Each structure stands twice: as C-alpha cells, then as structure tokens.
Amino acid sequence: MNRFEEKVVIVTGAGSGLGQAAALQLAKEGAKLVLVDINQAGLDDTKKKVQEVASNAETLLVTANVATESEVENFVNQTVERFGKIDAFLNNAGVEGKQDLTEDYGVDEFQKVVSINLNGVFYGMKYVLKVMKEQGYGSIVNTASVGGIRGVGNQSGYAASKHGVVGLTRNSAVEYGEYGISVKAIAPGAIMTPMVEGSLRQIGGDNWEEAGKQFVQGNPMKRFGKPEEIGYLVAFLLSTQADFINGAVIPIDGGQSYKY
C-alpha cells in the first residue's frame, strides 16, 4: 500500500521502540518523515533502518526535547519550512519513570515524567493543530497507555501523565473535528521495547527476562506485544481511511485492559 505517498508525517520518540516501528511502517507506505528524538544516535539508527525498507524515503531528522516548548515549536516550523505542510503527526515521545508507591514517589521524578509525557504531548498538539487548522485537514495519534485508562501500581507519574494524554485527545477531538482534523490515541500494553525492558530491569534486575515471563502470564494472550504491531495500527489511524475515527482511545494490549 502507498497510503502515505506524498504525505508528510512527524514522529516524535522516533529513535527507538514504538516510534521507530511506526516510522518504518510509514516509510514502507511512502511517507515523507520528520523524525524527532532527544537521542541523535537513535535518530541515525532509525534513518538507517528507514533507508533499508524504503531507499527513496525522504527524511528530516530533528534532535529535540519535547518537554521544552521552544524545541517543539522549532521542529514544527522546520517541517513546514521543508515540506510546506503536515499531513499527520504521531505524538509519541515519552518515558516511564521510576517505580514506587505514591507516598514514596519523588516530586522531582513526578514532574519530570509529566513534563515529557503530558506537557510534551500538549506542546506538540498546540503547534501542529495550528498548522492543520490552517490547512483544513490532518490526523493526529497520541501515544497514551493502558496506564492511561486504568490504574497501574507503583507508577503514579506515568499513570497521571497518560490519563492526561487521554483527556487532551478527547478535548481536541471535540474542538477541531469541524476543521477536518481527527485526533485519537492508542493505549499500548506491554510491548517489548527498550522502555519496557528498562521497567523489567527495575523489577527483576539481572533476572529481568524471567520477570518478563512472569509478567505476561497476567495477559490474556500470554505474550508481549511486538513494536511492529503498533506500527500497523498507527499507520491505519493516521491514514485517510481512519478520518472519521475521532476522539477514540484504542487499546492494543492483548486484552489486558479488560481483565479484572
């Protein structure tokens, strides 16, 4: 499929994990990509992999911290200057933070997680929505989490920030639908990415792989999700085929969010 031929798509958190997987799928489908991450080495790795799956893919790499408003405004401006438009936006960059009970959760850690996961998503929407409103079209997918639609123990900063992403998604869907813009969110469960590996290392240390095997027993499908499975969903949701899906928060978690 070439659903994104001549389409310009921004992907934040593109240097690894879900962002990288989505970028690869979008590249396969013809997208012109603006790849954003705080880690330049990660961006270089993603660009290399993009060229392997789509040798003619046009890419713009921007190193940015999404928790800094001016840096978000800059990558949006660079996109418009280079390509003249923004067709779609995967607002994905995020961190998990430390695991601890709420009473023991550090205030600085809480603020750090919220500044990236929630403020960063807000900044991205603020500046991309302005461009899309002027265009009269566009599609945004925000990366929330199962932790944004239900409680998750020992992760108050992460859960609070991802619940906020859900709220921003639904609010903007109501505000901008009349301008031909659709805004939705995905709510991934445990997908085997560097971030999830880091979480398992917090739990299991050197035995993190065994901790992972135990963890997935609580999932109805008894396995971790694959990053490419997120890529497939994101590509559909950002395509014009999903324009009438507006305000939805879609779990992709093997049924985890429905299990009591």
TrEMBL record:
Sequence intervals crossing the membrane: none
Protein EC: 1.1.1.47
InterPro entries the record matches: NAD(P)-bd_dom_sf, SDR_fam, TonB_box_CS
Keywords for this protein: Oxidoreductase
One Pfam family it belongs to: adh_short_C2
UniProt entry tagged with the keyword Oxidoreductase: yes
Enzyme kind, highest EC tier: oxidoreductase
Sample GO molecular function, one term: glucose 1-dehydrogenase [NAD(P)+] activity
Family the entry assigns: Belongs to the short-chain dehydrogenases/reductases (SDR) family.
Family annotation (PANTHER family): DEHYDROGENASES, SHORT CHAIN, ESTRADIOL 17-BETA-DEHYDROGENASE 8-RELATED
Protein's name in the database: Glucose 1-dehydrogenase
Organism: Solibacillus merdavium
Lineage: Bacteria, Bacillati, Bacillota, Bacilli, Bacillales
